[in-house]
């Protein structure tokens, strides 16, 4: 009992009212539901929420990564059961992403982060507009069932390059960047949106787990917050992944476009906060 009291007293939750705990749980559920549906971790949304509730930045970052991992594992399970994961793409983008993130982290001190974040903001806005435009075109087919094109040397090289560059950018700015990877999967690699969602979920799981281990070593975690947000988030992400399988291609593109445009301002605020560093 003494140990449990010690854990509670050392957690930010000890300073929360019952209403704040319920509100944070509901918001975590909502973010994870959308995350599971569109295949993007949305940590860039969850992290400011935790900070707004008074959680310190290092702990908030660790909790955010942990919740991203467990929710991605839950929704990834449903995407796998439904055959929405391109494992070759996971390998050729996921592994280079980890390497790129490591290199980006090492070189971040010599890069103007605000410029990179501003570019990410523009990419998200543009990609969101493109996705919405494609979804709203009346002649767009709604029964698009293409899976993954046959592997060629050129395509495999493209997938590897995309993974490394996004990992490099993510490592430099300290984000998993599933929101940037999604438009690359759909617009550059031409994956079916449903396949892109499942594939991006698994890649985000790998990259997020790598970042979480670093936070775990530094002790920047809070088990009670992870348990609370992880539990509600896992339910939300699983239900969101089920929703993915019930939406046609155009509706998936519409959802992806809306989420990209909604996330872009969060990146813009982050760029503003980093300026002029």
Your description of this structure?
- The chain is mainly alpha-helical.
- It has one domain (16-274).
- The protein contains 11 helices and no strands.
- It has helices spanning 2-9, 18-38, 43-52, 57-81, 87-107, 113-136, 153-173, 178-188, 193-218, 223-244, 249-274.
**Whole-number radius of gyration?**
18 Å
| Main sheet: strands, sense, barrel | none
Mean pLDDT: 84
Note poorly predicted spans. 1-5, 142-146
Give the class from helix and strand content and strand pairing: mainly alpha
Number of strands: 0
**How many H/I helical runs?**
11
Beta-strand content: under 5%
Helix residue percentage:
over 70%
Straight-line distance between termini: 47 Å
Shape estimate? globular
Query: Order of helices and strands, N to C?
Result: HHHHHHHHHHH
Can you tell me the number of structural domains?
A: 1
Concise summary:
The protein is mainly α and 277 residues long. The chain has helices at 2-9, 18-38, 43-52, 57-81, 87-107, 113-136, 153-173, 178-188, 193-218, 223-244, 249-274. It is globular.
């Amino acid at each position: 009992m003494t140990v449990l009291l010690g854990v509670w007293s050392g957690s930010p939750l000890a300073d929360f009212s019952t209403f704040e705990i319920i509100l944070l749980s509901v918001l975590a559920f909502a973010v994870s539901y959308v995350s599971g549906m569109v295949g993007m971790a949305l940590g860039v949304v969850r992290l400011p929420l935790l900070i707004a509730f008074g959680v310190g930045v290092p702990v908030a970052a660790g909790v955010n990564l942990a919740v991203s991992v467990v929710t991605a594992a839950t929704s990834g399970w449903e995407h796998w059961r439904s055959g929405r994961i391109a494992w070759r793409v996971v390998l050729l983008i996921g592994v280079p992403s980890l390497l790129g993130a490591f290199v980006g982290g090492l070189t971040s001190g010599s890069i103007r982060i605000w410029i990179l974040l501003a570019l990410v903001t523009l990419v998200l806005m543009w990609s969101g507009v493109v996705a919405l435009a494609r979804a709203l075109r009346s002649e767009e087919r709604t029964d698009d069932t293409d899976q993954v094109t046959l592997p060629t040397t050129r395509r495999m090289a493209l997938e590897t390059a995309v993974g490394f560059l996004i990992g490099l950018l993510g490592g430099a700015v300290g984000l998993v960047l599933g929101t940037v990877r999604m438009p690359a999967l759909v617009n550059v690699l031409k994956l079916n949106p449903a396949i892109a969602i499942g594939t991006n979920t698994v890649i985000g799981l790998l990259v997020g787990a790598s970042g979480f281990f670093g936070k775990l070593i530094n002790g920047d975690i809070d088990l009670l917050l992870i348990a609370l947000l992880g539990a509600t988030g896992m339910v939300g992400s699983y239900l969101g992944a089920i929703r993915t399988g019930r939406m046609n291609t155009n509706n998936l593109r519409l959802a992806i476009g809306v989420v990209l445009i909604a996330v872009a301002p969060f990146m813009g605020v982050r760029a503003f906060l980093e300026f002029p560093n």
